[in-house]
Design a protein that fits this description.
Order of helices and strands: HHEHEEHEHEEEHH
Number of strands: 7
Helix content: 10-25%
Number of helices: 7
Structural class: alpha/beta
Largest sheet: 7 strands, mixed
Radius of gyration: 18 Å
Shape: globular
Distance between the termini: 24 Å
Strand order of the largest sheet: 5-6-4-1-3-2-7
Length: about 280
């Protein structure tokens, strides 16, 4: 696997909330790239490995479960996650699903990129993206990229249907150029196979020709295997990713647009996105 070599910065939108921080101008987020361009550079990982133009800083707040209930009956919601390769495009698809299946507005969206499926964090409870100082590197800690969300238990089956559509007729993730356990396919439900709606998840997988396998943690890549690891999210929780990775353009499609990208700012402002304590860069 290609080793990441880039540094991160806390984005400038946070400076107002960090009274002790000195003012500076942070570079703008890197935009989307066509599928053709991505493939010629070895995918997102190879592209990002060439970026090293920011200083390393970190915040103090940690996030293991970032989701805030947005429905009137918060008790009816539960936290789940789904992973299928790079989490950028997966987040976009689940943001659409929240709108279409639940009728949520932009400020009610809970789909956030993150990490799950590993058995470890660092000593401070962090799980982070690849960074120069190897702080809590999610790959080294055995985690995969996922998108977590808070949805009604009764909707888990519907979201599972949307998830398995991501694999297409070939039963493969959309970005096979990214390889390694970090990009494995996995889903997390409270209780795993014992979840009350698991039969619907299983049916959605079967309809797509996919096999569900119990994840043990630190599991290997699923590339070319048509399988998805099932995780008990109580044992293998979701860790929110850095702000840079939220509502980001993807390499596989044209840029999603400024309105979509700006959802990250709104989610920071109202607290749906938290500081993770990890190096962050925009």
């Amino acid at each position: 696997m290609v080793e990441m070599k880039h540094i991160f910065l806390i984005p400038s939108l946070f400076l107002s909330s960090l009274s002790a921080a000195a003012a500076y101008t942070a570079p703008k987020p890197i935009g989307g790239q066509s599928a053709t361009a991505a493939s010629t550079t070895g995918g997102r990982r190879a592209f990002l490995s060439n970026i090293a133009n920011a200083a390393l800083v970190s915040s103090t707040a940690l996030v293991a479960n970032p989701h805030r209930a947005v429905a009137a009956d918060a008790a009816a919601l539960e936290d789940v996650y789904f992973g299928a390769g790079c989490f950028w495009h997966v987040q976009h698809e689940f943001a659409l699903a929240e709108k279409q299946l639940l009728g949520r507005k932009d400020k009610e969206l809970t789909s956030l990129t993150g990490y799950a499926g590993g058995t470890k964090t660092d000593a401070e409870g962090r799980v982070c993206y690849h960074n120069f100082k190897s702080i809590a590197d999610y790959g080294k800690l055995g985690h995969g990229e996922v998108v977590g969300m808070s949805i009604p238990q009764s909707s888990v089956g519907d979201f599972a249907v949307e998830y398995f559509k991501l694999f297409g007729d070939k039963g493969e993730r959309a970005d096979p150029m990214d390889k390694g356990g970090e990009y494995r396919s996995l889903l997390g439900l409270p209780g795993g196979r014992n979840h009350p709606m698991f039969n619907q998840v299983e049916a959605a997988a079967s309809n797509q020709g996919m096999t569900l396998v119990d994840g043990k943690g630190n599991d290997p890549d699923t590339l070319g295997k048509r399988l998805v690891y099932v995780m008990d999210s109580k044992k293998f929780p979701f860790y929110q990713a850095e702000v840079y990775h939220q509502y980001h353009n993807d390499f596989l499609t044209p840029a999603y647009g400024k309105k979509y990208n700006d959802l990250a700012d709104a989610a920071v402002d109202d607290g749906r996105i938290k500081f993770t304590g990890c190096p962050d860069r925009v």
